[in-house]
Amino acid sequence: MGGDTAHRTLQIERLGDENASGARLWSVGTIEAVLAGRRPPERWIDASAFKAGFEAGSPRGIESIGEFMLIDGTAFAKSTDSSSPDHEWLVAGPRFVTNGALLISRDTQPGWRARCTTEADDLLELGALFPQLLAVADGAPMCFVGPVEFEDYRATFISRAPIDGLPILDHMDAYYTRPPLEATSVPTLVMGCLASHESLRSGVLSDVLQKVLYVNPQDEEYPVAFHVHSMVLDRPLERLDEFSTARARDVHHLLASSRPRFFDLEIYPIESIEPLDA
């Protein structure tokens, strides 16, 4: 993403007021609560007020909290309820429960748009693209959402709800009971959050960023902190506004070794993250 090459075309578009300081986002619970396996209160949240969201949640109930995304007012999750026939299948609905989620309201406008098309011999892993994506907004912590087509897709998912006090990072085998997914030519929507390690540790927004973002020990080699989820679709999309609920097929935790050949991302530099329950 450092610029166009013979095999990569990148377009960066500034949206809205050039003097705008960034987006006000919303959080429910914390990523620390998710990682600690902390059971949330049974508080149902209306998804219709939100354009996008991700982390951990479910439209079915606390027992099925898993990999979660919210797109265009509908909540989606890969169910973790082992007592249900929907276990490890996609579930969707107009409301959700969560112990940690980051949300973009419908009236929040992106600051930038990044669109890139890459030929097969010039593909980069996400881990190499993230620092360049962060540079679009001069290094400001950001969220992004939009369609991505992957030439090489690498992802994983939890099969157990993080609600019974068992820490995820200390008990990976208990949560990740399936091998990582590997596939080619996968159309998706993604939502993620990025920040420099310095911003996460000691920046102006570090306190609120630490509620929604963490450094996975498996990702310590990368120069930025990131957390990204992907929704597998039945066909590729050119823009986010082409999405409909019928397109959704699955939700995963996306791995940095995935290699995209196309993306069209709305970028939201973060000004603040407010607790929805305040």
Walk me through this protein's architecture.
This protein is mainly beta. It contains five helices and 14 strands. Strands 1, 2, 3, 4, 5, 6, 7, 8, 9, 10, 11, 12, 13 and 14 form a 14-stranded mixed β-sheet that branches. It is globular and about 50 Å long. It starts with 7 loop residues before the first strand and ends with a strand.
In short, what is this structure?
10% of the residues lie in helices and 44% in strands.
Provide key terms for this protein.
278 residues; mainly beta; 14-stranded mixed sheet; 14 strands; 44% strand; globular
Question: Which helices and strands occur, and which strands form pairs?
Answer:
Layout: E1 8-14, E2 23-29, H1 31-35, E3 45-46, E4 50-58, E5 66-71, E6 74-78, E7 90-93, E8 95-105, E9 112-118, H2 126-135, E10 142-156, H3 172-175, E11 181-196, H4 197-202, H5 206-209, E12 224-233, E13 248-254, E14 259-275
Determine the mean pLDDT: 94
Total helical elements: 5
Order of helices and strands: EEHEEEEEEEHEHEHHEEE
Distance between the termini: 38 Å
Helix content: 10-25%
* Unreliable residue stretches: none
**What class would the helix/strand composition place it in?**
mainly beta
